[in-house]
Design brief:
This protein has about 325 residues and is α/β, with parallel strands linked by helices. It folds into 2 domains: about 1-230, Type I PLP-dependent aspartate aminotransferase-like (Major domain) (Aspartate Aminotransferase, domain 2, 3-Layer(aba) Sandwich), CATH 3.40.640.10; about 235-320, Alpha-Beta Complex (Aspartate Aminotransferase, domain 1). It has 14 helices and 12 strands. Strand 6 (about 115-120), helix 7 and strand 7 form a beta-alpha-beta unit. Helix 2 packs parallel to helix 11, helix 3 (about 45-55) crosses helix 10 and helix 13 (about 270-280) crosses helix 14. The structure holds pyridoxal-5'-phosphate. Pyridoxal-5'-phosphate binds near residues 44, 68 and 192. Pyridoxal-5'-phosphate binds near residues 124 and 181. Its cofactor is pyridoxal 5'-phosphate.
Length: about 325
Amino acid sequence: MREVLAAAPVGNDAYREDEAVRSLEDRVAELFGMDSAMFLPTGTMANLVAVSVLCPRGGEVLADQESYVLASGLGGLATVAGLQSRTIHAVRGALDAAAVRAALRPAGWGVLPTSALIVENTHARSGGAVVPLPVLAELSLLAREHGIGLHCDGARIWHAAVATGTSLKAYGALFDTLTVSVSKGLGAPVGALMLGDAERVERARQVRKQLGGGWRGAGVLAAAAEFAVLNNVARLREDHDKAAAIATRLGRQPMINAPVETNIVLVRVRDSVAVHRACARQGVGVFRLAPDLIRIVTHRDVSMERCLEAAEVIAAAIAQ
Ligand SMILES: Cc1ncc(COP(=O)(O)O)c(C=O)c1O
């Protein structure tokens, strides 16, 4: 990856002059069967830009209460995109179409109509749960019937595709806008892409520029991202196997995201601060998701053997 990065043909992407960025964007759009794609620094920015072109400022979006955009987006939907959000309950990231239908507000006197629905796949705060394709298809139909936009935060959609054997195009066909990350399981140093139809992505380029995302020389990062997309998707299965192995080792704990479907394990603990500290002392990184919840994420740079060693450290820390 570093060799590809060093050899990248770069230019000013704000003027569409960067060959490596254009190559990445074309490739990812083609993989998902969508019109166009745009490269951005982060998934957070990609989501904000996507939703900004999907909804008029001052509009309303529906999303699940545990979605990344609402739970971890630090209010960006409101402060940056100027949107009001309403939450819907979801089970392992799967929104219930009937609940969404009941929550929709049509345009009318004194009512702010719903502009878009946001889904997330895989669902981070549900421990990388895969939202089933039929659920997404039903929501897509519902959104189209009611003339509202459907955005998917697909930061880890690669994992969903690998875990279920669903094609990327099958996902791409369902959404008006989609964001994907290359800097998580795929292992690129930086980056995310926003996908949609050509007109939306063109408008999104303006919004990205407004947010300071018109970047020069981005090709070095795009080349690494394209390498990751080409070489590191199928191998995500190994990360899923590692997470399953860790879950099996910790199985006596009341795990909350069983079955583990992708590369994230969530474990309820008495005191996540104490567990985090004990693990850190042994060189094992776990994330404190809540006072009583830790998150373990597997990835390409930690082998199965090291994951099993880490599981022993985590088990001992939890037992303390
Ligand atoms: C589901 C989801 N969406 C978006 C993001 C934001 O990505 P970034 O950290 O690149 O801004 C994350 C980050 O972990 C995420 O888990």
